[in-house]
Design a protein that fits this description.
- By secondary structure, this protein is an alpha/beta fold.
- The chain folds into three domains: 213 residues, FAD/NAD(P)-binding domain; 109 residues, FAD/NAD(P)-binding domain; 104 residues, FAD/NAD-linked reductase, C-terminal dimerisation domain (Enolase-like, domain 1), CATH 3.30.390.
- Helices cover 32% and strands 26% of the residues.
- It contains 14 helices and 24 strands.
- Strands 1, 2, 3, 4, 5, 6 and 19 form a seven-stranded mixed β-sheet that branches. A five-stranded parallel β-sheet has the order 8-15-9-10-11. Strands 20-21-24-23-22 form a five-stranded antiparallel β-sheet, sandwiched between helices.
- Helix 7 links the parallel strand 10 and strand 11.
- It starts with a strand and ends in an 8-residue tail after the last helix.
- The mean pLDDT is 95.
C-alpha cells in the first residue's frame, strides 16, 4: 500500500491545481485520473471551444471586410482545419499539465478510483490500494441527456462530440440557451450553418440580467440565428441523415427537420463509480454535498468543482481546489465568495457578469442605482467596428457598494475583473469613476457606467 498526504481523484481544472498547490506546500501528493490530464475543460470543453470561437471571429471579420474598405474574393473556410488547430492547442496545454506534475513531484496514477474507506482508494484497473490522509474528489460532470433525445454522436450530440467532429451540417437545432448553446450557435452560424436555438425559459442565458439576455437575442437575430424561447422539445424522430423535431411554445406545436441536434441542457455529476454510499459521503440531487470549506460528510474527504453542483465553472473549481490544499496544509485561505465569481460567455457579442442582477438586488431590499453606458459611445469600440452592447453596474444607493456588474459587448470577458477587484477591496462605484483609464480603450465604458449610476457620465 502506498501512502500519501493528499490524493486527488480527477485531473480537471479543479483537481490538477489543487494537487500542484498541495505539492508546493510540502504535502506528498498523487492524482488519479482515468482519462486525459486537464479534464473535460481542457480537452473537450473550455479550451477547444474557445479556439474554435476564435476561428469564427476571424471568419466573421473577413465576411464584413467591406466595412473596412477591404475586398475579399473566393473566401473559403475549412472547419476541419479549425478543429485540427483546436486540438493542437489542447495537446500543448495537456503536455504542460504533465510537465507541472513532474516539476512538483506529483505522482500521476492512470485509472478509475473507488473509495474503500475514509482514507483508502482502490484503482480498479490494477487493484492498487492507496492510503491518503486527505482525499479530494474532483471527478467533474458530464453533459446531461434527455430521454426523448438519445445521444448517438452523429445526429444527436453533446458539446463533447461536436468539438471533435470535422463535418458541419447544413442545419442545426441547439437545445438549451445557456453558455454552451449560445457559443455553439455563434460558431455554427459563422460557418454558414442554418442555426435555431431553443430555450425552455423566457430568455437566452436565463441566469443573466434580463437586459443583457434581450440584447444578445437581438444580436443573434441580426446575425441570422433563429432564437426560440419559452419553448420545449417534445419529440424527435430520427432518420438516416436528418431528424424531425417537434417543439411546443406559446404559439402551439411546430415540427421542423434538422441535420444535427446539439443537446446543451446542463450536466450530471460523475459519481457512479466512486462507491460514495459505502463510505458515507452524502449527496443531494445527484451532487456531492459539501460545507463552506468543501468538506463532505466524511471529514477526511473533500469535493470540489462540478461534482458539487455549487457553481459549474472551471475557475470556480480551481479556486476551490487551491483553497482545499491550503486548508489541509494549515495555511490561511479565505472561504469561497460565490457572489463575486465571474461568469463569461464567449459568443459574439461576449457576455460577462458577476453579482446581483437589478431585479435580484431590488428583491433583496437594496435601494438601487443603475449605471449603464453603451459601447456605441466609446471611441475604441467604434474604431474597432465592434460597438454593440453595454456595461451595466448595479450600485447600492446608500453606500455606493457595487452589487453586480453585467456586460455585453467587445472583449467584456477581459473587462469584468476591474469591478470584481473593486468589490473585493470594498471599493465603491465613485472610486471606479475616479480611476483614470487610458484613452481610447474599451475599459472606459466600465468607468462611465460607474459614473452613470450617479448621473455623472461624461460622454452620455
Amino acid at each position: 500500500m502506498t501512502d500519501y498526504d493528499f490524493v486527488v481523484i480527477g485531473a480537471g481544472p479543479g483537481g490538477y491545481p489543487s494537487a500542484i498547490r498541495a505539492a508546493q506546500l510540502g504535502l506528498r501528493t498523487a492524482v488519479i485520473e482515468r482519462d486525459e490530464l486537464g479534464g473535460v475543460c481542457l480537452n473537450w470543453g473550455c479550451i477547444p471551444s474557445k479556439a474554435l470561437l476564435r476561428n469564427a471571429e476571424v471568419l466573421s471579420l473577413f465576411q464584413r471586410a467591406a466595412d473596412f474598405g477591404i475586398s475579399c474574393e473566393n473566401l473559403t473556410a475549412d472547419f476541419g482545419s479549425a478543429i485540427a488547430r483546436s486540438r493542437e492547442v489542447v495537446s500543448r496545454l495537456t503536455k504542460g499539465v504533465g510537465g507541472l506534475f513532474r516539476k512538483n513531484n506529483i505522482e500521476h496514477i492512470k485509472g478509475t478510483a473507488s473509495l474503500r474507506d475514509a482514507t483508502k482508494i482502490e484503482v480498479k484497473e490494477t487493484g492498487q490500494v492507496i492510503n491518503a490522509k486527505h482525499i479530494v474528489i474532483a471527478t467533474g460532470a458530464r453533459a446531461r441527456s434527455l430521454p426523448h433525445l438519445p445521444i448517438d454522436g452523429s445526429l444527436v450530440m453533446t458539446s463533447r462530440e461536436a468539438l471533435e467532429n470535422n463535418d458541419l451540417p447544413k442545419s442545426a437545432l441547439i437545445i438549451g440557451g445557456g453558455a454552451t448553446g449560445c457559443e455553439f450557435a455563434y460558431l455554427y452560424n459563422a460557418y454558414g450553418v442554418e442555426v435555431t436555438i431553443v430555450e425552455l425559459l423566457p430568455h437566452l442565458l436565463p441566469n443573466e440580467d434580463e437586459e443583457v439576455s434581450q440584447q444578445l437575442e437581438r444580436a443573434f437575430g441580426k446575425q441570422g440565428i433563429r432564437v426560440v424561447t419559452s419553448t420545449k422539445v417534445t419529440e424527435m424522430i430520427g432518420g438516416a441523415t436528418t431528424a424531425k423535431v417537434t417543439m411546443e411554445g406559446p404559439d402551439g406545436s411546430v415540427t421542423n427537420e434538422y441535420e444535427r441536434l446539439l443537446v446543451a441542457v446542463g450536466v450530471q455529476a460523475n459519481i457512479e463509480e466512486l462507491e460514495l454510499e459505502s463510505v458515507g459521503v452524502e449527496t443531494a440531487k445527484g451532487f456531492i454535498s459539501v460545507n463552506d470549506h468543501m468538506l463532505t460528510s466524511v471529514p477526511s474527504i473533500s469535493a470540489i468543482g462540478d461534482v458539487t453542483g455549487l457553481m459549474l465553472l472551471a475557475h470556480v473549481a480551481t479556486a476551490q481546489g487551491v483553497a482545499v490544499a491550503e486548508w489541509q496544509a494549515g495555511q490561511e485561505s479565505p472561504t469561497i465568495d460565490y457572489g463575486i465569481m465571474p461568469k463569461a460567455v464567449y459568443c459574439q457579442p461576449q457576455v460577462a457578469s458577476w453579482g446581483l442582477t437589478e431585479q435580484q438586488a431590488q428583491s433583496l431590499g437594496h435601494q438601487v442605482q443603475v449605471g449603464r453606458f453603451p459601447f456605441s459611445a466609446n471611441g475604441k469600440a467604434l474604431g474597432l467596428g465592434d460597438s454593440e452592447g453595454f456595461v451595466k453596474t448595479i450600485i447600492d444607493a446608500e453606500y455606493g457598494e457595487i452589487l453586480g456588474a453585467h456586460m455585453i459587448g467587445p472583449e467584456v470577458t477581459e473587462l469584468l475583473a476591474e469591478l470584481s477587484m473593486a468589490r473585493m477591496l470594498e471599493g465603491t462605484a465613485q472610486e471606479v469613476g475616479w480611476l483614470v483609464h487610458a484613452h481610447p480603450t474599451l475599459s472606459e465604458v466600465v468607468k462611465e457606467s460607474a459614473l452613470a449610476a450617479r448621473g455623472e457620465a461624461i460622454h452620455m
